[in-house]
Amino acid sequence: MALAWSHIVLYVEDKERMLAFYTDMLGFEVTDRGPVRLNDDREIVFLSQDPEEHHQIALLDGRTESGPSNSVNHAAFRIDNLAALRKISVALEAEGISYNPRTHGNSWSIYFEDPERNGIEIFCNTPWKVAQPQTVAWDPALSDDELVLWTEQRFRDEPGFAPTDA
């Protein structure tokens, strides 16, 4: 049996604030919304960026505790390239949202939290495979060429280091 990841449902305190974050900041679109079931005043909102997926994220009224998530560390989203990753980091900075740039040798990532402190990772792949776990901060001020060179130099002596096309 092969499983393919489809979606996550988040309980939220402030659905409209979370909806604005996921649509305005991360580019998700509302695909549906409505009451959870008859005689239930909670609403669920479905969001997606993938036309093949009705929803990748759903926001559901009913979060009962404030603070960081205590059972899920983060949800991760893959993007195409460094340019797209940098575009998101610029948008986060413009909104005053701090992020943590990390590389695992096989990816460049930025980690941050949504307005209700759920962890998010957005990443793109590097051209290498590297044995995991690995995590090292990377400098967003480096140009793409400098970052690629720095990453290769930092990880080339690590176990399992090889080009992804090998």
Could you describe the 3D structure shown?
The protein is an alpha+beta fold and 166 residues long. The chain is 22% helix and 31% strand. The chain is built from 3 helices and 11 strands; from the N terminus they run E-H-E-E-E-E-H-E-E-E-E-E-H-E.
H/E series: EHEEEEHEEEEEHE
Note the quaternary state here: single chain
Radius of gyration: 18 Å
Helices, by number, come to 3
Percentage of residues in DSSP E strands: 25-35%
Short characterization:
This protein is 22% helix and 31% strand. The protein has helices at residues 15-25, 82-94, 144-155, and strands at 8-12, 29-35, 43-48, 57-61, 75-78, 100-103, 107-113, 119-125, 128-129, 136-137, 162-163. The strands form three sheets. It has a five-stranded mixed β-sheet with strand order 5-8-7-6-10, covered by helices on one side. A four-stranded mixed β-sheet has the order 1-4-3-2, with helices on one face.
Name its key features:
single chain; 166 residues; alpha+beta; 5-stranded mixed sheet; 11 strands; elongated
Furnish the topology, listing elements before pairings.
Layout: E1 8-12, H1 15-25, E2 29-35, E3 43-48, E4 57-61, E5 75-78, H2 82-94, E6 100-103, E7 107-113, E8 119-125, E9 128-129, E10 136-137, H3 144-155, E11 162-163
Parallel strand pairs: 1-4, 5-8
Antiparallel strand pairs: 2-3, 3-4, 6-7, 6-10, 7-8, 9-11
